[in-house]
């Protein structure tokens, strides 16, 4: 510093003392400056006051010499003390040079700067509030200062500033929020602690409504909640807890929609505390805001659904997530469905709406534009549409929701409880908003069919409920199944088609009605037959499904354990109309090109028909064959049952067509007798002894009117080798009274009460010819396989 420079009105002694390296001499100079300024105040000489402050600032506080800077700081503090209440007029000139020294490399100088600013603020009190942002900015930096003395000095200044803010009603919260939003993302733990302490103070001031600006800082608060320091995490928990209490007290003034996306992000974090806290907030938001949260459903589901599969280690998160899921589901009501329309177009691109951006941006939450289920988010948090300030009626758009549900359902790595929750959601949406949901049915169908291979019985049951609802919903009747490809309805692995009325190839037997349902059965929609076709296609392509799954049991006294396929059909019979299912399956299998698969499926369906207690009414309907509908069903089943000779006989036994059963058994002599064939005959004998065929065994007492029943049973006996089944059937036939009455010569009038061969509606000769044609095809296929060397010859020499 130039000693000859004029620093008037500062005397040379004051200037010399301010530049001294000793603190005591600088302090003496400060007292002289205070005395000098007081005189100027008394004289109301503002020019000289400004000149003194400017000199101390420019020539000392901002000097290159460290001792001069220290002198300038203490001199500025002395000016503020001398000015007293008038210091507010010069605060900008007093504060700015001091704040500049906060960045000084010398820790001692930073400490003196804290001390100087403390004195300035202490004198000015509320007058410093217009300069709060620059003070806060400087303090936030000192809060992380490595020097303990500087940090201690900054804490004193911080407490003083908090007291001033608390006692004042002129705090500019609007101007402060941008700075708070910026500083809240600091990674320094001391800076974070400083930020949290200030938020607590502002939240406690009655005149400051920080809740209005919570969306601006909520994301930063959740990030601070993940700090490594326990004390900081605890402080942040307290802050978030206070905010949540305030939200519960004043839900009408809360900007729920603007914070929904923030919660979605933090509900997916790997930090347990953050995730649990965010999930608790989400639960309260859904319950308090109600339908306001519906536009964010896809993001919420992306966050909540995976949590439902957590184990006991994250039990708390799982329980809260379950409440969120249930509460969100209750928000969807029938009013969310679109009104009745003549014929909405399937898979039509949705018209632009205010939530279109939501569907696209929610893709970030549900996996992005490619539909993947990556739950990570790109930079930024605005992945949802901005909320309107007005509580306008909420319109539910399902595009994003269905995408998220489909994505989670198709991901086999996701836990069982999550998949069950997804299926419950789909079922709920089909019940509440069927017309909207049927726009997405074609895209959901493959995933729902794939889910039938799930390892969990509970998942399969829920999946079948969804498929059954799709197949039976009246809303599905409005959708056009689309044109058919190809000239006929032949079912192959590469092409499965939906038949329409009037197409060739349906039953031609007199009295039949093709695929038409009987008047007593509910009409299924266009998806019913699609479902049946695709279900059979899946079973045909996944032959190991039987071996992998075997957990369901068909109830009945025989306690026959069935395959996974059989269980699916059995459950479908509970959910849909059994007659429709068997009618459609039989018609599809009639055109199945894979004869081995057709035989296996016919055997499966026959087992269900004969053993399931839930199909009691259907069996009674087939027993009598008195109505055109029952005769039509019998003919339809018979033609497909011909793929398996033994099941065809069992169907004739069920329908009391004993003469035709006898005629069929007579044809067995022309068939290739294999181990599999004899095994099925053995099972049929066992089945005859079950309660299902009690009526058949009782009819053995009426030998006169049931001669062909007895002859058919003797025919089965003659087919069997000397085995336990042979002994069982032989003992049964020994109980038949008056065996000599088995003669059926010309003198015997064959007019059995229960015999249905005389029914004019059924052409049994044509059915027998159909049986022979089908069995001829099977024989040709077996010979072809044997010629290729891939068929194991299991013929038996008797």
TrEMBL record:
| Gene3D superfamilies referenced in this protein's UniProt entry, alphabetically | Leucine-rich Repeat Variant
Which Gene Ontology terms describe the biological processes this protein takes part in? phosphatidylinositol biosynthetic process
Annotated ranges, domain Vacuolar protein 14 C-terminal Fig4-binding: 566-736
Q: Which UniProt keywords apply?
A: Endoplasmic reticulum, Endosome, Membrane, Microsome, Repeat
A cellular component term, taken from the record's GO annotations? PAS complex
On subunit structure and binding partners, the annotation says: Forms pentamers. Component of the PI(3,5)P2 regulatory complex/PAS complex, at least composed of PIKFYVE, FIG4 and VAC14. VAC14 nucleates the assembly of the complex and serves as a scaffold by pentamerizing into a star-shaped structure, which can bind a single copy each of PIKFYVE and FIG4 and coordinates their activities. Interacts with NOS1.
According to its UniProt entry, what is the function of this protein?
Scaffold protein component of the PI(3,5)P2 regulatory complex which regulates both the synthesis and turnover of phosphatidylinositol 3,5-bisphosphate (PtdIns(3,5)P2). Pentamerizes into a star-shaped structure and nucleates the assembly of the complex. The pentamer binds a single copy each of PIKFYVE and FIG4 and coordinates both PIKfyve kinase activity and FIG4 phosphatase activity, being required to maintain normal levels of phosphatidylinositol 3-phosphate (PtdIns(3)P) and phosphatidylinositol 5-phosphate (PtdIns(5)P).
What this protein is called in its record is Protein VAC14 homolog
């Amino acid at each position: 510093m130039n000693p000859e420079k004029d620093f008037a009105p500062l005397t040379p002694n004051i200037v010399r003392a301010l530049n001294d390296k000793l603190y005591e001499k600088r302090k003496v100079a400060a007292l002289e400056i205070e005395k000098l300024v007081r005189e100027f105040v008394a004289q109301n000489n503002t020019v000289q006051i400004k000149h003194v402050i400017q000199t101390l600032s420019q020539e000392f506080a901002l000097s290159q010499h460290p001792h001069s800077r220290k002198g300038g700081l203490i001199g500025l503090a002395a000016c503020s003390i001398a000015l007293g209440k008038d210091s507010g007029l010069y605060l900008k000139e007093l504060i700015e040079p001091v704040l500049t020294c906060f960045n000084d490399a010398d820790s001692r100088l930073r400490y003196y700067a804290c001390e100087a600013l403390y004195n300035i603020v202490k004198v000015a009190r509320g007058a410093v509030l217009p300069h709060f942002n620059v003070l806060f900015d400087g303090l936030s930096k000192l809060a992380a200062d490595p020097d303990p003395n500087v940090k201690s000095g900054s804490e004193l200044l911080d407490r003083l500033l908090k007291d001033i803010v608390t006692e004042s009603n002129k705090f500019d919260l609007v101007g402060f929020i941008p700075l708070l939003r910026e500083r809240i993302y600091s990674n320094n733990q001391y800076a974070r602690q400083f930020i949290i302490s200030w938020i607590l103070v502002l939240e406690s001031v009655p005149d400051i409504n920080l809740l209005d600006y919570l969306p601006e800082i909520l994301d930063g608060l959740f990030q601070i909640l993940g700090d490594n320091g326990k004390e900081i995490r605890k402080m942040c928990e307290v802050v978030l807890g206070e905010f949540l209490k305030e939200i519960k007290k004043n839900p009408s003034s809360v900007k729920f929609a603007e914070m929904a996306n923030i919660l979605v992000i933090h509900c997916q974090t790997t930090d347990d505390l953050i995730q649990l806290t965010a999930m608790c907030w989400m639960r309260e938001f859904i319950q308090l805001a109600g339908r306001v949260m519906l536009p964010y459903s896809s993001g919420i589901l992306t966050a909540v659904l995976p949590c439902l599969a957590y184990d006991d280690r994250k039990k708390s998160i799982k329980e809260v997530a379950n409440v969120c899921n249930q509460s969100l589901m209750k928000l969807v009501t029938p009013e969310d469905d679109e009104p009745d329309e003549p014929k909405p177009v399937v898979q039509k691109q949705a018209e632009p709406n205010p939530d279109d951006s939501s569907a696209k941006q929610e893709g970030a939450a549900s996996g992005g534009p490619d539909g993947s289920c990556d739950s990570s988010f790109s930079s930024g948090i605005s992945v949802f549409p901005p909320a309107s300030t007005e509580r306008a009626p909420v319109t539910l758009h399902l595009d994003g929701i269905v995408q998220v549900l489909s994505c989670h359902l198709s991901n086999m790595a996701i836990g069982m409880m999550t998949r069950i929750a997804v299926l419950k959601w789909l079922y709920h949406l089909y019940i509440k908003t069927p017309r909207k949901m049927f726009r997405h049915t074609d895209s959901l169908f493959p995933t729902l069919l794939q889910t039938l291979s799930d390892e969990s019985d509970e998942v399969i049951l829920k999946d079948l409920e969804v498929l059954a609802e799709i197949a039976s919903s009246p809303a599905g009747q409005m959708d056009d199944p689309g044109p058919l490809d190809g000239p006929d309805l032949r079912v192959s692995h590469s092409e499965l088609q939906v038949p329409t009325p009037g197409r060739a190839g349906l039953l031609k037997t007199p009295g039949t009605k093709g695929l038409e349902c009987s008047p007593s059965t509910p009409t299924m929609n266009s998806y019913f037959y699609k479902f049946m076709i695709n279900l059979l296609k899946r079973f045909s392509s996944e032959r190991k499904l039987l071996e992998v799954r075997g957990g369901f049991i068909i109830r009945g006294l025989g306690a026959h354990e069935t395959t996974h396929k059989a269980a699916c059909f059995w459950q479908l019979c509970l959910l849909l109309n059994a007659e429709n299912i068997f009618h459609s399956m039989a018609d599809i299998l009639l055109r199945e090109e894979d004869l081995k698969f057709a035989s296996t499926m016919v055997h499966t369906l026959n087992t269900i028909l004969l053993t399931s207690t839930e199909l009691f009414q259907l069996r009674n309907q087939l027993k009598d064959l008195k109505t055109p509908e029952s005769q039509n069903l019998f003919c339809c089943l018979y033609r497909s049952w011909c793929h398996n000779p033994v099941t065809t006989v069992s169907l004739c036994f069920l329908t009391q067509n004993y003469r035709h059963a006898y005629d069929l058994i007579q044809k067995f002599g022309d068939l290739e007798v294999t181990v599999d064939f004899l095994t099925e005959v053995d099972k049929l004998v066992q089945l005859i002894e079950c309660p299902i065929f009690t009526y058949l065994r009782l009819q053995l007492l009426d030998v006169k009117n049931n001669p062909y029943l007895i002859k058919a049973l003797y025919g089965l006996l003659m087919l069997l080798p000397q085995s336990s089944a042979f002994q069982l059937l032989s003992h049964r036939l020994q109980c038949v009274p008056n065996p000599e009455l088995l003669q059926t010569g010309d003198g015997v009038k064959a007019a059995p009460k229960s015999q249905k061969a005389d029914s004019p509606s059924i052409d049994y000769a044509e059915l027998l010819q159909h049986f022979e044609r089908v069995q001829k095809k099977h024989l040709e296929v077996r010979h072809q396989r044997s010629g290729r060397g891939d068929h194991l010859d299991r013929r038996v020499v008797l």
